[in-house]
Design brief:
The complex is a heterodimer of chains A (489) and B (540). By secondary structure, chain A is mostly beta strands. Chain A has 5 helices and 37 strands. In chain A, strands 1, 3, 5, 6, 7, 8 and 9 form a 7-stranded mixed β-sheet that branches. In chain A, strands 13, 14, 15, 16, 17 and 36 form a 6-stranded mixed β-sheet that branches. In chain A, strands 18-19-20-21-37 form a 5-stranded mixed β-sheet, with no helix packed on it. The longest helix of chain B is centred in the first third of the chain and has 26 residues. The N and C termini of chain B lie far apart (76 Å). The chains are: A mainly beta (489), B mainly alpha (540).
Chain lengths: 489, 540
């Protein structure tokens, strides 16, 4: 409804006020323009939504932009900001896959035109054919979530659709949507607090579990699907926050305990393993290797938090897993040793082709989103050599990476714009594990959209197609006590 | 004769509007303040689109437009007077058509006034009701077929109050028409829910998304007030032939209206709740002496009230003298732990700000804002968030919030001034308020601990000896916690830095109580300690 009204208003406004400025006597400027978002030299997939942008400057009253492909094609737009037609943009990027688009920007300031040096937008030869991304939007406050919601966004245009928002289930708070390797039909999410539960949707059928048992202390939260689609690994934990009083650091998030459990969605059984439920260590952020034979997770020594918040150092560990029997192997292997390196390694995310392990490295903590020094790193799983993704990292938080289906694109959240509001970025990973300069999730009018958006993006992931989620059914179950109890295996 | 009567009615209706104006301006201005601080109306296209995208959105938009004027209470009260006067006049016009009496036309607005005594009742409902009454008058008995379009459109624009319109249209018609109207109404609600409002529970779409602040709660008056109009209309329509009943009925009607009016005033407006809202208003305005003088007469025994009064005492440097002359709720009397609602943390947010605990004030302000259940922003809180971010030097975030305020009517001027200071360290340092708060901040980074709030106040004072409020809160917190040793140990700070000519009366009383091991007759502090011990004993 909102979109329909907005569309009608835009059509009326455009038809009333549109007029195209023309460039006259442009003065050459020997530098590239300053634009928002920073799309200078980024690499995009063919078919992505248009990289509309605004030229930064108080006195800018018009822009004239020509985007010309190295393999042919050209788009010319003019107006308050660079706004490309979706179809023309798609045609241009498809034609120039593996090449580049040179963008010439002319700017009118105080009535005078300037022509800036062209900047390139590289079009990757790697496809990104997923429908879009899913994420949670939440005001980045402190202890009160506000109007949170799970959304999906078509990355080939600008359509955003809510899957479930707080208005649908007033007074309830929910965790992020975790798909089964970008599969839109299978996903899990958790509703917290009174009447909470863990949702597992398989092939469109919702099952709401009560995963909190006498043996598990808490319900499942951070989740990851086993590739065969039968098991889901959850971290069960107790998350808390403490707050700083100085001017630089606002918040520290910590867990009082954390274990990993496995849900067998066929038998509704929770598989418990004492190695993943140790009292002296906190096991968190599980993920499976693409062949399903290894469980990766982070583990840190139990500290007296919040007093010892600086001592929380996570290591990344792998543990063999046998899906046929639902049992774990004997020997755990430490891939990254946090205590030894005086770092914290979290959120290990193996690529779906089995070549890479993406993870987040920060100075401390098992909640990287609150750590300004959190950066993305990548490990070659054959050589076990790890390196930072320098093209991707900034001086602010980078976190929650996830791979697309062909393992050449990642989506991650970053606070690089202002240190507070996480935004979604995409980067291309080549066959050698090198990342390209990331680009911000495109919006129709990015400056207006992001400047006026008071939500942060959480836990983005790709989705192959549009997620079909029946919020009405979910609400009915959430408000009832109808939960599938789990048995302990 | 007829004209004179009509003029008299106009005069009485106008008088009703004026009475409503006085009712809000002098009776309950704190309610205006409360509603104003729970929204931030913006003159932007997006704001309109956001509102209109929800069932009842036009009524919400108009209501929020009116509520923004509560910032200047007399203007807000004028608008409410006009709204209620209009509603009453329209009700009269409706009743007139069905042979009803003028006296009874006051009944629905009075019921609405009663309903609005509930602080969760939103202005959307009276606005929506006024709009559908106006529509009914406009349509007269004509264009019955047009209702096929009107009903769904108006349902979307003003919400389920359109039921009043449908019910009024049914009066005097064939029963089959009634069935069509009722079916149409429910069909509208189902279609609105199924196609456009599935992110809301059906019960909210059917009963109003923004008629009441708390979702899924439906107080009885929310239905009684609007439905009284078709109910009375139906009644009078079918019994108007019996004119012989008119005289005794008129007396009865007056009695009814007066009774409802008196009930609305006495039962609709909870004394304690409105006293707390008044304290909130006075804290916002910095009217410290008024807070103290009101508390001398009556104080609601809650931590909220203690927080307000203590802040007022500290602001006027009377805390050390008079703290225990007033009700102290316990260890939370000076600084309350954060609570998950849109009200309780206001005084502590203000206290943190004045103490120089900028991040804590920011945290409370942010959480208060996110606790507004219909996800609106707050002008007051956004302003505080900007101030905190400016003191902390986080100008990008400050600008984001400033740009929001610039689209408002009453905060835009302030926002323009704040924007001029962004990034200008010298200007902020020299600003009376921001510069002072910068001086009061903690010098060292540390983790906030509510359990150690006394020590934190002590550290604030160590960082800046001119922060007398921190010293007062340090000593006061120790007294509240019963940390006698600490209190006695740091009395020398009070003597050295407190700036008092003699030992403050409150501290003298506490020292006397401590020295007498609590056996100090007439000691206010001893009384407090006894009460706390009784409470602890009761809990055990």
């Amino acid at each position: 409804m909102r979109k329909v009204i907005l569309y009608i208003m835009c059509v009326v406004a455009v038809s009333l006020f549109s007029c195209t400025p023309t460039v006259e006597n442009a003065k050459k400027v020997d530098r590239q323009p300053s634009i928002y978002p920073d799309y200078l030299g980024v690499t995009v997939p063919a078919g992505i939504a248009p990289l509309n942008f605004t030229v930064v400057g108080k006195d800018v009253d018009a822009v004239d932009v020509v985007a010309r492909g190295s393999k042919g094609g050209e788009i010319h737009v003019a107006g308050d900001y660079a706004k490309f037609d979706i179809d023309e943009w798609h045609e241009l990027t498809e034609k120039n896959a593996g090449g580049k688009i040179s963008v010439r920007v002319c700017v009118r300031e105080n009535g005078e035109w300037s022509e800036y040096k062209e900047f390139p937008i590289y079009v990757s030869s790697y496809r990104l054919d997923e429908y879009g991304v899913t994420y949670r939007r939440i005001p980045p406050g402190y202890e009160v979530g506000g109007n949170i919601g799970l959304y999906q966004r078509n990355i080939h245009n600008f359509d955003e659709t809510p899957m479930i928002t707080e208005t649908a289930v007033p007074g309830r708070c929910f965790n992020c949507h975790t798909p089964d390797r970008t599969n839109p039909h299978n996903f899990t999410m958790q509703v917290r607090g009174d009447g909470g539960g863990t949702l597992v949707q398989k092939d469109g059928k919702q099952t709401w579990y009560n995963t909190k048992t006498d043996s598990t202390k808490a319900a499942g939260s951070y989740a990851y699907w086993h590739p065969d689609g039968n098991y889901v690994a959850y971290a069960t934990n107790s998350v808390h926050q403490c707050f700083f009083v100085g001017k630089h650091k606002p918040i520290e998030v910590y867990h009082l305990f954390s274990n990993i459990v496995l849900l067998d969605t066929r038998t509704h059984e929770l598989v418990l393993d004492q190695r993943l439920m140790t009292p002296d260590w906190l096991e968190i952020f599980p993920s499976f290797s693409p062949d399903g034979k290894v469980l990766y997770y982070s583990t840190s020594r139990a500290c007296n938090v919040p007093a010892e918040y600086q001592k929380v150092k996570c290591s990344v560990v792998s543990l063999p897993f046998n899906a046929a029997t639902g049992t774990f192997g004997e020997r755990a292997d430490t891939l990254l040793n946090g205590e030894k390196d005086n770092k914290s390694y979290v959120l290990a995310r193996p690529s779906y082709d089995g070549k890479w392990l993406m993870f987040v490295r920060c100075g401390r903590s098992n909640f990287p989103i609150a750590q300004p020094d959190a950066d993305l790193w990548i490990m070659d799983l054959k050589s076990r050599k790890a390196k930072p993704l320098e093209a991707v990292n900034s001086r602010h938080t980078e976190s929650y990476p996830n791979w697309n289906g062909n393992s050449h694109w990642i989506v991650f959240s970053s606070k690089r714009q202002d240190g507070m509001y996480t935004r979604l970025y995409f980067s291309c990973i080549d066959d050698k594990g090198n990342a390209t300069k990331p680009f911000l999730l495109p919006q129709e009018n990015p400056w207006k959209y992001y400047h006026e958006l008071f939500d942060a993006y959480n836990v983005p992931d790709f989705t192959k197609d549009k997620v079909d989620f029946d919020v009405r059914t979910a609400r009915d179950i959430i408000f009832s006590d109808d939960r599938q109890e789990v048995r302990i295996r | 004769m007829v004209e004179k009567r009509e003029l008299l009615k106009v005069a009485i209706s106008a008088a009703f509007g004026i009475a409503v104006f006085f009712f809000w301006l002098f009776g309950y201005p704190q309610a205006l303040n409360y509603h104003e601080e729970n929204q931030l109306f913006l003159f932007t296209c997006d704001y309109f689109v956001r509102d209109i995208s929800v069932v009842g959105g036009l009524a919400d938009y108009i209501a929020e437009f009116i509520v923004q004027f509560y910032y200047v209470p007399w203007v807000g009260a004028v608008m409410l007077g006009i709204l209620y006067g209009t509603t009453q006049w329209l009700v009269w016009k409706v009743f007139y058509r069905f042979g009803g009496s003028y006296v009874l036309s006051f009944l629905p607005p009075l019921l609405l006034l009663w309903h609005m005594g509930d602080i969760n009742a939103m202005l959307s409902l009276p606005v929506a009701l006024t709009l559908v009454l106006a529509l009914f008058i406009l349509m007269r008995d004509r264009f019955l077929l047009a209702d096929v379009v009107i009903l769904p459109v108006v349902y979307w624009l003003v919400g389920p109050v359109v039921a009043v319109y449908a019910l009024l249209r049914m009066i005097g018609r064939d029963w089959r028409v009634s069935i069509v109207y009722l079916t149409g109404f429910f069909a509208c609600s189902v279609v609105a829910y199924w196609l456009l409002s599935y992110q809301y529970p059906y019960s909210m779409v059917l009963t109003g998304v923004n008629y009441y602040f708390r979702p899924l709660y439906h107080p009885c008056l929310q239905f009684v007030a609007p439905l009284s109009i078709p109910a009375i209309s139906t009644f009078t329509h079918y019994f108007k032939a019996k004119t012989g009943w008119r005289k005794p009925l008129s007396v009865l009607q007056v009695v009814m209206v007066v009774a409802i009016g008196v009930s609305a005033w006495t039962m609709g407006y909870d004394k304690d709740m409105y006293e707390l809202l008044m304290q909130d208003k006075l804290v916002r305005e910095g009217k410290w002496n008024e807070i103290i003088s009101r508390a001398e007469k009556y104080q609601v025994p809650t931590s909220f009230s203690s927080n307000c009064v203590n802040l007022a005492l500290a602001a006027t440097r009377q805390l050390a003298d008079r703290m225990f002359d007033f009700y102290q709720s316990g260890e939370d009397a000076l600084v309350a732990p954060r609570m998950r609602d849109n009200m309780s943390s206001y005084p502590t947010m203000e206290t943190f700000w004045r103490l120089g605990m900028v991040n804590s004030s920011l945290r409370y302000a942010s959480d208060l804002q996110e606790s507004i259940l219909n996800a609106r922003k707050s002008g007051r809180l956004t302003k505080r968030i900007v101030q905190c971010q400016m003191v902390n030097g986080r100008y990008a975030i400050a600008r984001k919030n400033i740009d929001l305020l610039r689209h408002s009517l009453f905060y835009s001027e302030w926002a323009a001034k704040a924007e001029a200071m962004l990034g200008d360290e010298a200007a902020i340092d020299n600003d009376n308020e921001l510069g002072r708060i910068r001086q009061l901040r903690f010098r060292k980074e540390m983790v906030y601990s509510y359990d150690e709030i006394d020590k934190m106040c002590g550290l604030l004072f160590i960082d800046n000896n001119s922060n007398k409020m921190a010293l007062d809160y340090f000593m006061g917190n120790m007294l509240l916690k019963g940390n006698i040793q600490g209190f006695m140990q740091y009395m020398s700070w009070v003597q050295q830095y407190g700036g008092y000519y003699e030992m403050p009366r409150g501290y003298q009383d506490a020292v006397n109580c401590i020295q007498q091991h609590g056996n100090a007759p007439g000691s206010r502090y001893a009384e407090y300690v006894r009460r706390m011990m009784d409470r602890k004993g009761g809990q055990e």
